[in-house]
């Protein structure tokens, strides 16, 4: 969370990190393929994507530098090998712009007068005295956008316990509704908690429901991300769990996960620390994906901010069965991981700026790495062969 605010508000020197210059093959494997490169003064963080039924990928990122800021939308129809700029998502309600934390998905059923296939996107707006999560829709493949609704509003961006902002949305179409998950500091009983709200028409939003809320006020669970594990018919929610300046397995933002029968019931289930061999833990801004590849239970893949590698579990989330495998993809703040629906052995990792690199003026391109998941699962913790 502190990384987000620092990256958005800081003034950076010029500099660009290099990405691969070789041309990737469609539906192939490649490392650090550039989606777009900034001029050197802007930063790209918090990459997000949605994968459409025809295999098209729409990807976006927070883009700090333009005034007002916006979310650029790019499209790939060949597994991330080539990309086309589709549009820029501008917020139209406050004039502040989309400051941070984009979210993008698509409707798998008609909802609220919008047809199946509608692209839904939004993010966080950091106003002078508010944070605001808004939802937009596109019915023409992300070419044009229309404001739909305000999901949640809180106080100004401030990570101090006792402040009241909202953060880090993610959207999930589920059971003829849209679920909006976010980090929530508005509850006086919690420094921060994870919440969700449900809409059956994309305009009106139901009550705030707790997904992860600790009795310890200082605990600040954050950065909800969710995947479905088909063989066991369970949903998994991953999140970071900082508590003051405490450390767990050598990290200050340890990653925890919750399993539930539906994506609406995380709050009634315990969460579990993600630890490898009782010694190694991911740190901060987790992202989770599931692939049917890798055995009868498939493979859960979790990314974090500090590791180039990914954490995997081929035992349905068994706490004793996590492994760490090296990858050539860069460690990036809030990088996203994706499994291609029509090629479940393809693991895509989206990259951008690191917190320290951005602060030093070393700006990286918005990029994607496509890896053979089978090869990843054979890699050691430190060596990708």
From TrEMBL:
The keyword Signal applies. SUPFAM superfamilies: Sialidases. The keyword Membrane does not apply. Residues 1-18 form the signal peptide. InterPro entries: Sialidase_sf (IPR036278). It comes from the Eukaryota. Keywords: Signal. Coiled coil: none annotated. This is Glycoside hydrolase family 93 protein.
